[in-house]
Fold this sequence. Notes:
- The protein is α/β, with parallel strands linked by helices.
- The chain has 2 domains: 145 residues, Medium-chain alcohol dehydrogenases, catalytic domain (Quinone Oxidoreductase, Chain A, domain 1), CATH 3.90.180; 140 residues, Rossmann fold (3-Layer(aba) Sandwich).
- Helix content is 29%, strand content 27%.
- The strands form 3 sheets. Strands 3, 4, 5, 6, 7, 14 and 15 form a 7-stranded mixed sheet that branches. A 6-stranded parallel sheet has the order 10-9-8-11-12-13, with helices on both faces. A two-stranded antiparallel ribbon has the order 1-2.
- The chain is globular, with a radius of gyration of 20 Å.
Amino acid sequence: MFKAVILRKGDDGATLANVEMVETNLLPEADVEIDVAFSTLNYKDGLAITGRGPVVRQWPMVPGIDLAGTVVKSNSADFPEGSEVIVNGHGMGEVHWGGLAQKARVPSAWLTRKPEALSAKDAASIGTAGYTAMLSVLALERHGVRKDDGPILVTGANGGVGSFALALLARRGYEVVASTGRPSENERLQALGAARVIDRDELAKQGKPLQKEQWAGAIDCVGSHTLANICAQTRYGGVVTACGLAQGMDFPATVAPFILRGVTLVGIDSVYAPQALREEAWRCLAQETDPRLLKEIASDVTIEDSIEQAHKLMRGEVKGRIVVDLAA
């Protein structure tokens, strides 16, 4: 048996979350079984555990869109027993049991080999947040944004994706402006590489279809009016990546920035991204992630503490990344 966070639907439709002991034979059928060393708490996990969003589509469910661990049983020649692997997304925690458990069973096609330069804890500390941030940075550069073009805005900069995006862009030599609703964290954001910090309220309300041009590019983790205002403020030919919805799923914008300024809006999908793109992102993360950054961004909790931490995450009381140590 093994420990797992189990989500069940109550008679009243509410989500019930508990840490339980689970029989191994209840794991989903798949060709690879993993001893999970570390998982994480992401915004989507917070929505699932608290029931604040319709994330879970099969019940009961083990949440956790990330895991890092070691293959212990395998029918895959590509990932024999002993392989150290990472899994991000692929519907884990939504339609397939996820990483907030000491064991997992997943299809081998979902696995990414852990880069040797990273420990399992490093890989979990980076997780979907860092991987999504790197996908966003790569998208900006793929669409022609260069470090001499002007400032890059990162919204939700105190969150996991935002923190990594800020640090990765700064490391690559970009001038980065961080947007946050927590001014008490300004010093931390500047330590991560922000040239300056702005209040999220400057972007959070409905604005004009076209506004003063400010940003050569942006990584938006927020959505809604914030994303609309970013597009309206982006310079001619600039690029905005959309990878989050902390403010909302809506996009109350006009076509003006796109047809009058040639702005490009790029969607970032970390869940079902093709394997080649995943491997490129993880290769870059292994090369560019400073271990000191991980200590600054990530904090550890046990599986027993993970449910309460998910509630804190949804209340906006968490900064950076939460790593769940499954051995603790």
